[in-house]
Amino acid sequence: MEGTEGTQAGVGMKVKDKNIGKLVSVCCKNCPNYKCYWPRQNPGSFVTGRGYRSYGDGRDKEYLCGTRNAHGCPENPELC
To answer: In angstroms, rounded to a whole number, what is the distance separating the alpha carbons of residues 36 and 7?
Structure first.
């Protein structure tokens, strides 16, 4: 499938989101065109019973795809 190379967990790249003007960590360069794409600021790590905790370094200011972070990328993002 063209455009979805690198969708395995832990593999990714950053693309500049034209709407927010920030680099966003995504799985492939076409992610901003998919419906599942959800750019958001890195929420930190989640701890059960405590919620999200910041990392305390530069990662807190980075942006990532919220769908990828919460659920992983769908098998066929073109179809979502």
So the answer is: 13
Residue 6 lies in a domain: no
25-41 pLDDT per residue, tens: 999 999 999 999 999 99
8 Å CB contact between 76 and 2: no
Give the domain range for residue 41: 13-79
The strand pairing partners of 53, in sequence order, are 45
pTM here? Answer: 0.71
| Tens of pLDDT, residues 45-78 | 777 887 777 766 666 679 999 999 888 898 888 7
**Gap between the Cα atoms of 24 and 69, Å rounded:** 12
- Report CA torsion sign: 73, 74, 76, 80: negative
Q: Are 49 and 58 in contact (CB under 8 A)?
A: no
Helix (H) or strand (E) holding 70: helix 66-71
